[in-house]
Every structure is written in structure tokens, then in C-alpha cells.
UniProtKB/TrEMBL annotation:
Protein kinase domain sequence ranges: 1-283
Taxonomic lineage of the native organism: Eukaryota, Viridiplantae, Streptophyta, Embryophyta, Tracheophyta
Protein name, entry field: Protein kinase domain-containing protein
Positions of transmembrane segments: none
Pfam family, one: PK_Tyr_Ser-Thr
Species in which this protein is naturally found: Ceratopteris richardii
Amino acid sequence: MFKFLKGVVGSSGGVKDLPYNIGEPYSSAWGSWTHYRGTSKDDNSPVSIFSLSCTSTQDGRLGAARNGVKRLRTVRHPNVLSFLHSTEVETVEGSLTKLTIYMVTEPVMPLAEKLKELNLEGTHRDEYYAWGLHQIAKAVSFLNNDCKLVHGNICVASVVVTPNLDWKIHAFDVLSEFDSSNPDSGGPMLQYDWLIGSQYKSMELSKSDWALIRKSPVWAIDSWGLGCLIYEIFSGAKLSKTEDLRNTAFLPKTLLPDYQRLLGSTPSRRMNPSKLINNSEFFQNKLVETIQFLDILNLKDSVEKDAFFRKLVSLAEQLPRQIVLAKVLPMLAAALEFGSASASALNPLLKLGSWLSVDDFNVKVLPTLTKLFASNDRGIRVGLLQHIDQFGSSLSSQVVDEQVFPHLANGFSDTSAFLRELTLKAMLILVPKLSQRTISGSLLKYLSKLQVDEEPAIRTNTTILIGNIAAYLNEATRKRVLINAFTVRALRDGFAPARSAGIMALSATSLYYDITEIGTRILPSLVVLTVDGDSDVRSKAFEATERFLNLVKQGFGQVETDGEVSTSLSSTNTAGASILGWAMSSLTMKGKTAESSALSTNITSLTVTNSTENITAAAGAHEIKVSKVQTDNVSTKNITESSVPSNGWGDMDEDNSADDDVDKDGWDDMESFESPVPSALSRIQAAQQRPVQAPPRVSSTNSVSSAEEETFFSKPPGNSGDYLAQDDDPWAAIAAPPPSTTVKPLSLSGSRVAGPTRVRQAQHVSIDSVLGKKSEVSGRGRGRAGPMKLGAQRINRSSD
């Protein structure tokens, strides 16, 4: 016998034919039913399981239970309990055969227990009760007016509450059609009316006056039940007798008139539930209005939506906190996820989500935010990036790497400079959660393009980001990327704050460079900037130069103790990689570039060494100027050629374009200073292949022309637009177009091009400034020769 029962019931706490596990029961349920907690065997999702057992097939409760299951399966309404599954199980206990009906529904909780758990008081209690009664009145109106059905037993026991705190009715065992075809019939209309407690029966129902019931409105019986429900929820006690309904001391004054009309002694004069919904002053409160607005959000225009979401946060602070988190927040998340809400709803979602615990936030809010990264709405994308510091740390590494970054990366190439900047800054939070494959294969390629962005603020912050994420790069990537990104691009940028950012990034990442790299690549690049035209760049260059010189001295100081030169600075460099602050303010959205408009920059506080250094850089109304640098028989061009190798960032060699088809991240093809010196034969052959060109002459004033100045930031051969479109090799031979602005060199003399002729002289440079002498008249009788064009030219020689 035991084996038979085990096969029928199962060994895991559930019925064999029921794909759900039965848990602990609740303390109360309607009628003879028992309400259990339960879970699905498939996905462990929560459910509610109702069971009713009878020992005889002739038991009337069995027929009523089957009627309730059938009715609940066929009646569908948002405020009617959702049916999932049902089954009947027959078991044998001794000489008795026991028949049990199981009905599975969505997870709910008895109303009486939920009200005790919430323990609301005052205005918050009345607002929530108003919302719950509003839902039940809608369900009863649907049954009576639309379906012509009579529930028969509306009370606290027949109402359950969902996890979202919605009220729903069930207990359809007594539910029957309203029979008005034969008003003179005296037969019972409710087949199972004996299941209704006497305290819940109206006067005509307690007398079984079926003729009067048939002549009365269809809602007469259930309107009486609504009055009983109102009494029980406000009194906090179960109705024990009908006479207790006369006690109204605890009812709100705005609800009292409707309560009396629901319990009218004359059935035909009782209030229709539909009028209770529309006319009652009790339902006109902030909570009901807020939820109703979210329910019909699709029908609202954009102006109404924006106005609603702007005041939602302040409104939510006045509502019951438990109701807001359980009801309003999920509705808001669903509206954003399915597109009915605008971008203005994102701020209330994050604000209300901050009231949740970490675990609840990860369950209720974070999945919605993750899906929103795939949205094409630019406003939503901007909102996510602006508030990513609030939820970015909660995202898992797998979610960021597989779901967030592929969509977020579109912002790197967006046409909006503001969105590109926000995307760049968001990576500081998300990079620790990215895999090395994503960082090396995707992120660095985007950053290589942003280092030559047309907006100087983006170029500057890209350099700062690379310095901040250096700790998350593997050693091989750091060797390939850091020095090239800082010295070749950042230190040569025409925008002074960008050069300052490059210097600070080098200092902050000094832990990752060995002595050889410092001596041959970093120091030569820094020394050039000690004569920079910007005072802030010069001061930072001097500090960084002194810092790196000390590191080299410390490294060679170990020779006396260790007996050999250690190229690694891991033991001597104790500063570590510090976090750099964003150097630039947010971009304007007026369509003007930062070079042509007055751009205010603010370099925030930065920790480079053990002490904190407050750095402030202000660049206002930058103009393209031509200045002459007085040097002692040494031109800028000579400095460039001697200190920086020909690697594609400065003067481009013609052979560099042959490597454009290599799939690299932009830093792979950088030539190092340790490259072997070409032989004399190779230099002669290379010289023979160059076009014939007049040799430049240094003027008597030792000035550097603007043409020579432009070679410092020369553009690569080919179309720059084609370069930016190459995804396979965005750093092809470092052939990215340089920034449009030019370096403002330090003027050691008082001579300066005055007035508005500066720009014109930068655009049109005469041959006099290049060759240092006046152009001669060529030809016979042909007048004065026109100005020569800059650059290499073929000279056509003809024999006279």
C-alpha cells in the first residue's frame, strides 16, 4: 500500500500528475480549499496551488469545486486570478477512497495576510485600499455587466494579492449565470448558494426569494458583497453577523455615501459597481491616478508623458513606499522596455530603483537597463551613459562583455560629439568587466580613432582614458600601446590640454616602462615640449622630465648593489598607475567645433606622484596662429627628425602605405628607437628615388616657417575619410589625419605676425620664407614669376 501511495503522490512533495511542487500552506483560504505555496518543476518559478479533498463522490463540495475550476479557466480579466493548471488525484487510504482536486494559479497571497504584512496607516492605507477596491469593483462590474454572471460571495476571503500588490478575485465555486428569462420562477438561481456564509447574504438571498432576485439588477447580490468587503478591510476583522455592517465609525467620510448605497435594503436601488468606479470621490487620489496614467501610457502624447515623468520622482516620495516599489516601479520598467515610455522616464526609474536593496535592484531594474542599451532612441542612450555610475558596478562581467558593450560601442562612431564623449567616459566604469579579447580586439581600435577625433575634448579625454585603463591591459598590449599613444599622438596634438594630458598619462603609467624605453623614447619626446608655446605644457614637461630622469638614475643606481643594470623599474618605481581625472568639460551641442568656438577646459585634480597636484587648464578662443621660434641654428624640423623616428605619426614615408592591409589596433606598426641604422648603400638608393627638390635654406633670423611647422603634424598620403572607414586596420601605418589645429610654439623673440594677417600667412606661405631670399625673375620678358608651391615637385629641365 505504501508503494502505491508513493507512486501516486510522488517522492518530492508534489503530486505525480502535477508538474508543480507543493510547499507550505497559508493560514487562510476561501471555503474548504487549502491554499499552498508552490513552484514549477521546470523552471522553479513560484505559483499558488489550491486543493480540496472529498471522501465521497456524492459530496456537494466536489461539484462546486469542479464548477469553480471550470469558471476560472474560462473567465479572463486583469483583475481575475489567472488559471494555469488543474488535475484530480484519487488515492486510497485504508477502506476509503479520497479524491483531491488541485488547481494551480499565478502566485498570490490571501488579502487578509497581506494587509497585516503591509501594516499601512493613515493616508497611505486609504490610498492603497482605494486602489485595491478600484480593481475589485472593475472585476465585479465585468462579471455582472459584461458577462451577466453573479459571483455570489465577494468578501475578504475571495480576494488575493499578487506580488505586484494587485487585488484579484477568485472563489468561483458559486458563480452562476443570471437567469432573467423566467422572472416568476421560484427555483434557485445559484446552485451552490449554501456555500455562502449567512453573514454575507443579502436579505433577499437569505430568504431564498429567487423571484425577487430575478427581477432585481444583475449586480444586486455582488454589490452587497462589495459592501461586506469594504467593512472587513477597514475594520480589520472578519464579518461575524449582518448587523455589524451598520457600524461605520472606521470608514472614510468620502466612501461612506457609496458604502450605504451598496448595502441598500432594496435590491433595485443598490449601486452599480461601474458607477462606483467612475463617480466615487474616494478613488480620486494620487496613487490611483499615477497607476491609471501608467496603465494607459500608450494613449498619451509626448508632452503629457514628459510632464508626468518630470514630477514622478517628487510624487513617488509622497506615496506609500512599499506600493511604489512593488507596483509603480515594475510598470515604469515595463514601459521603458517595450517602448511606450520616453527617455525622460529613465531618471525616475533609476531614482526609484535606488530605494531597493542590491539584490532586488539586480532582479527588478538591472535586466531592463541591460535591454535598453540596444535601443535606437538617442535620448535613452544618453541617459544610460550619464547615469552609468549608478548601476555600472552591478552589471556582471558576462553581461557587459556580451550584451552591453556590442551596443554601447556604436557610440564611439556616432555623429554626435556629445554621445561620443559620454561613451568614452562610460568605459572607465565598464573596462574592468571586459575580457582581454574585447579590450585588445575592439576597444583599443575605437580609442585609436578617437585620438584623432575632430573634437579636441574627445582627443584629450581619450588619452586620459588610456592612462586610466592601463592596469587592465596585458603586458604585451601595454608595451605596444602606451608609449605610442602618448608620445606619438598625444604629445604632438595641436591642442595644448591634449599635450598636457599626454604628459600626465605618461607620468601616471610610469610603472609600466623600463629604463630603455624611458631613455630612448619617452625622454626625447618630453624634452621637445620644454619649449612648448603653452606655459602649462612646459611646466608639466619639466616635471615629467625630472621624474623620469630620477627613475633612470634609480635604475642604474642598482648597479652598485646588484652588479648589473636592471631595465625593469618594478622595484624602483613606487608611484604606480594613478587615476587621471577627466580634463575637458562637456561638449556643446551647437554644431561648432571646439577650435572655432571659445572652449573652456578644466583639468581636474590628478594624482601623479605620492602628492596630489591640482591642475587647471583654461584654453579660450584658440586661433590658428603662425609664430616663429628662435633657435640657435637648430630648426624645429631638425629637432623632429633627430628625436622621433620616422614612424608614420610625424613625417610620413611613402613606404608606410604598403602596410595598410594589416589587421592591427593602430599601435603595432610603430617603429622603435632601437631599430637598426640603415646602411650607407640603402641611404644612397633611397636618396636617388626621391624627387628633385630645391634644398631649404635657413634664413638669417633662424626662423621656422609655417610649412616646416606643418611637417610636424603632416597628414598621411591618401584620403583621410577612407582611413577612418577602415575597420580592419584603423591605425594603418598610423596614417590617421592629425588634429586640425597647430602647435603654438614658444616665441623667444618679440617678432610676431600682427593683426588679422596671421591666418592668411598660415594659409599662403611665400617661397621667401622657405628659401630665405627673394625670388628671382625667370624667363625672358615674362615678368615676375608666381609664388612656388610647397612640397616636393618635379623640375622639368629642357636644353636651350
